[in-house]
Amino acid sequence: MREVDLAALETALAEGAPVIDVRELDEYVQVRVPGVTHIPLSEFVARVEEIPAAETVYIICAVGGRSLQAADYLSGRGINAVSVAGGTDGWQQSGRPVESGA
Fold first, then answer.
1. What is the pLDDT of residues 16-55, one digit of tens each?
2. Which of 12, 22, 40, 85 could join 17 via S-S bond, C-beta 3.0 to 4.6 A?
């Protein structure tokens, strides 16, 4: 399983790579990385067809545990997926921009 750091995520976002946020709705509404797509881990298997085709799919959660699970699942389906170490919490703590609201 591969993990990437926040700098790699920042570059990926700038390049238009898909980033899937697997946190639950209340977490997502409270704070999120701009430009992510929300597919909660609790709905992930049922909504896997919504994952865009891309060279690499980035998966983020709060700190990295749930995103590792989702990335592992996608890797098992032949999708190159990486987990973002540090997650949304690390992104926010680093002073990078965030969004909130529905």
1. 999 999 999 999 999 999 999 999 999 999 999 999 999 9
2. 12
CA distance 61 to 70: 10
The residues spanned by each domain of the chain are 3-93
**Residue 26 in contact with residue 100, Cβ under 8 Å?**
no
**CATH tag, 3-93:** 3.40.250.10
pLDDT of residue 1: 59
